[in-house]
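Dear U.,

Please find below the material for section 3 of the report. The protein was modelled together with zinc ion; I have listed the sequence and SMILES used, followed by the predicted complex structure.
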Amino acid sequence: MIVFDLKCANNHTFEGWFEGRSDFESEKESGRLACPICGDQELGIVPTGGYYSKGHDRKGGQTSSGDSFVKVLTDYFEKNFDNVGKKFADEAIKMHFGETDLKNIRGTVTDEEEKELNEEGVEFIKIPMPKLQS
Ligand SMILES: [Zn+2]
């Protein structure tokens, strides 16, 4: 069985199951086939191009997966986190003590600041990201 996307003269589209294209043609010739919405019998097969677009998608997937993990991660952080640069430790501590509203921030910390954040119990994730070491 194969499924065809069918369209009537009034542009209604619906799915039809057939043994094959010739089965569709004979069903149509015999007048047993009609649009379930308006009953129209002038039905045509909508070219879906499913196989072509599947192959196309796979190709596109390869291209995007060519981006490195770090690049994807960097893009995500740039889009969703405010860059506070070297003030990261200050900002993180302020948020930790409720002095400022919670938000997503990114930035850099020195070893000393990192120790301070750990001592204060501030939760943060450290990701090696050369691009952010500005
Ligand atoms: Zn119709």
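For the text of the report, you could mention the following: The first helix runs from residue 21 to 29.

Regards,
Y.
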